[in-house]
Amino acid sequence: MRRTTAACGTVLLALLAAACATSGQAPTRQADRDAPATLSFWSTGGDDETAIFQKAADLYHREHPNVTIKVQTLSWDDAYAKLLAAATSRSGPDVISGGMTWTIQFGARGAMVDLRQHGLDALKAQAQPAQWESATSPDGSVYGVPLDMSTLALYYRTDLLAKAGLDAPPKTWDELTAAIGRLKAAGVDKPYSQDWGNLDWIGYFNYLYQAGGTFYTPDCKPSLDTPQAERALTYWVKLYREHGAPTASVEASDALDTGTALVVGGNWIAKGIDVNKPKLKGKWAMTTLPAGPAGPTTFIGGRAIGVTSFSEHAATGADFVRFMYSDQAIAAIVEEARKRNLPYIPPRPDKVVDSSSFTPDQARVFERAFRTGKAAPGCPGWDESAPDVSKHLQSAILGKADVKTALAEAAKVMARNAG
Amino acid sequence: MANPAPLRSRLRRYGTSYTMLLPFLGLFAAFLIWPLANSLYLSFTTFDGINPAAFTGLDNFRDLAQDARFMHVLRNTSVYVVASVLLGTLLSLGLALAFNGSGWAHRVMRTVFFLPSVTSSIALMLMWKWVLFPSDVGLANTIVSRLGGTAVAWLATPGLTIPILVLMSVWGGMGYGMVLYVAGLGSIPQEYYEAAEIDGASAWRRFRHITLPLLRPVTTYVVVTGLIGAFQVFEAVYIVFRGTNNIGGVLDSGLMIVPYLYDQGFTHFKLGYASAIAWVLFLIIFVLSLVNLRLGRAMKEL
């Protein structure tokens, strides 16, 4: 009897749960635009970054006294889960920022506003074209626009290169392998390592595009079965297996500090080296990644910013997103970022050199990378495929599969997830 | 059927007690039964967390049976569970036998081995991450290079992933098992040993025929809780082995059931599928615990 009651209770609860979970969603009622409004902006990153975006929000408040925008921090570790929880409960932030493809993912499920409704597709003219494309959904919807840019650079120890008789960093793939050989011959134990993208698709991305390949064709068919893709992976695998690039990732400034001569790392590394590793001052420099047979194409990352579909202030939120592209907003953000010694590159290529928080010399290196850079594929199923693609690349690097098989397997996964 | 009269008298007698239980029952229902019922329902649906769930019957479970990655996860988890529970239990028993005295030296040693159990697991995992730091500045690699070896890519070598996870789990958990075993050893009457000694039983035979059988309830408890804990391993994988784009280390070599569940549910919007994984995990643990309790013939003692 007691068991039956318990069983009935459970079934009843399950049904209640079902009823709760299946309640539909109606479009969010919009608040009066002229009434005072407080918007919340969940910014993925550190507290310091929240503070620099708050400067732009304060500036917006000065121009629109009715509107207050509160920026709150989501740490990278749990941002995605928190945003998912907010989307499920349809409450929380009006504006969100996060990984480049997040807004597409949330948008595809109805949790983001298509910013074209508010005319934000006009920002395309100001953005880096490849990054814009990457933030745009396959169906053309714009659920998020780039908030900042990041890329990779080749950091090097000038003293170790001099020791090997190299007066300039390698500019091509061939020069890179030659330089590694000469460094080894000169007694440098750790000639080359990779930080951002090590053993990961982002690392392969650079070689793939530098060899003239792509992950997908323009109509989103997997294109890893090309000679270019094979050439890129063969070269990358060689860097690990013949030239001793470590499979374990060490943060780029740590790697430089512990005697690695050439390190591929994210642009943000440049900001911290002199402060965190004072010993390295004057002993390091940076340049763009060595170019492949098809050119110097480098990965462009960054964050996207968008407006949630459950916001009551969608139009105001969209206006704030547009404001983030204005000269004055960028100036306010950069001023604060410089004060706090934070890496920040605005999403407008024309602003990189004079309005990033990096020194002009450093910014010029990044600007060169942005000029020919490409961003993550925006094709359907890419986000689901990325971890598996990385796994197949790893099996080639670790010698568990040959290059051709690894690429064929990766392409199979991409085709399956493309639906 | 319940008779109204005794019910009323029972209410009069226990009414206050039931009222006092209500806050707990409320919390229990809201934070345990309710989510459990929800997840059971969701395991039969596709639910992306945002759009309404759509009922799909047993599709999630059928997909799981064909999911090569899930099979890999099950293999990984089995190896990890067997190794960590076996080693953990043996070492707990060994430590308990070594340090079950009441002298200060034994007490100090017991405290030392128990310390990992009272430390925050997140802090422990971060510490392990630093010990295994891949560059030659990591503690493990410093020792290796002092001994004349070359630096090892601890966290990027697939073959080392599960042994490292087992090491972390055994190191962190054996002190807890030891304390339980020490309590178990203390409850064995000394007379049995004296009688055996008079009969001329060797130390091994005394251990084999007195200590081990009388420790069976403790062993059952240690193994069952160890199994449950090992199947649910998450922090170790999530903190120590997560890469930028994957959660389970190089080539998924450390991907276990719960990290996979988290990955599917919270980074791939497949909450229905993740719920199905959770219920499969529940079934596995349930069946194994039952088998274990039967094998230990310790139903009564527990």
Automatic annotation (TrEMBL), chain A:
Signal peptide: 1-26
Keyword entries, A-Z: Signal
InterPro entries, alphabetized: Bact_solute-bd_prot1, SBP
A Pfam family that the UniProt record links to this protein: SBP_bac_1
PANTHER family noted in UniProt: ARABINOSE-BINDING PROTEIN-RELATED (PTHR43649), DIACETYLCHITOBIOSE BINDING PROTEIN DASA (PTHR43649:SF12)
Name under which the protein is recorded: Sugar ABC transporter substrate-binding protein
Organism: [Actinomadura] parvosata subsp. kistnae
TrEMBL record, chain B:
Location of the protein in the cell: Cell membrane
PROSITE patterns: ABC_TM1
GO cellular component terms given for this protein: plasma membrane
One of the Pfam families matching this protein, by short name: BPD_transp_1
Top-rank taxon, per record: Bacteria
Membrane topology per record: Multi-pass membrane protein
UniProt keyword terms in alphabetical order: Cell membrane, Membrane, Transmembrane, Transmembrane helix, Transport
Location (main, coarse): membrane
Residue intervals passing through the bilayer: 20-37, 79-99, 111-131, 151-171, 218-241, 271-293
Keyword Ribosomal protein assigned: no
Keyword Acyltransferase assigned: no
Biological-process GO terms, alphabetical: transmembrane transport
ABC transmembrane type-1 domain segment(s): 74-292
Protein family: Belongs to the binding-protein-dependent transport system permease family.
Database matches in PANTHER family: ABC TRANSPORTER PERMEASE PROTEIN, INNER MEMBRANE ABC TRANSPORTER PERMEASE PROTEIN YCJO
The protein's name in its UniProt record: ABC transmembrane type-1 domain-containing protein
Organism: [Actinomadura] parvosata subsp. kistnae
